[in-house]
Amino acid sequence: MSETEALLAEFDQDPEGGLSKIMDRFEKPLVRHARAVLLDTELAKDVVQETFIRFLTEKPRPDNLGGWLYRVATNLGFNALRSARRRSHYEAISYENSAGPAAASRSAGAMDPAQAAELADERAQVQAVLRQMKPRDAQILVLRHSGLSYKEIAAALEIAPGSVGTLLARAERAFEQMYDDH
């Protein structure tokens, strides 16, 4: 019996205890993965919670539970990025129509302003490049950066395990080129 079959069988027999075991097995790696996609720990935790809620409401029976969970977390993460981009656009418009630079200087954090600006710029560049990439290329990079094996990546993206290396190499080259051009 595979790990997925065992976890799903236990969930069927004892939903509360089974869910607890599934969460014990997958929660921390999923949060790391979502944090790599979103660059925000709290938002990553929210995405993982929503992933487990989807598991409970959709009651999937995948061959690879981990792959299903990573795929759902990835999709929810990219949805959150798109939502944040739209929100940022509307906030920028609101900012232009309101208090201006004085409000921005009051909201600066405890980090050295130069470091904070550099970090924010780098994060924005990475996210912008990932948004411009083909979705599968962005997903494969984020999954690999999250520490998933080629087998886990193949399951999450529903591709042949033997093609992961080639697809990953192409995605890395595309990311580097786009990042340098950005």
Structural notes for this entry:
The protein has 182 residues and is mainly alpha-helical. It contains nine helices and no strands. It has helices at 3-13, 15-38, 41-58, 65-96, 101-106, 113-132, 135-145, 150-157, 164-181.
Name some characteristics of this structure:
single chain; 182 residues; mainly alpha; 0% strand; globular
| Topology, number of strands | 0
Global mean pLDDT = 83
Radius of gyration, taken over Cα atoms and rounded to an integer in Å: 19 Å
Order of helices and strands: HHHHHHHHH
Tell me the strand percentage band. under 5%
From the N-terminal CA to the C-terminal CA, the straight-line distance is: 48 Å
Q: Roughly what percent helix?
A: over 70%
Helices, by number, come to 9
Shape: globular
Structural class from helices and strands?
Answer: mainly alpha
Which blocks of ≥5 consecutive residues have pLDDT under 50? 99-109
Largest sheet: none
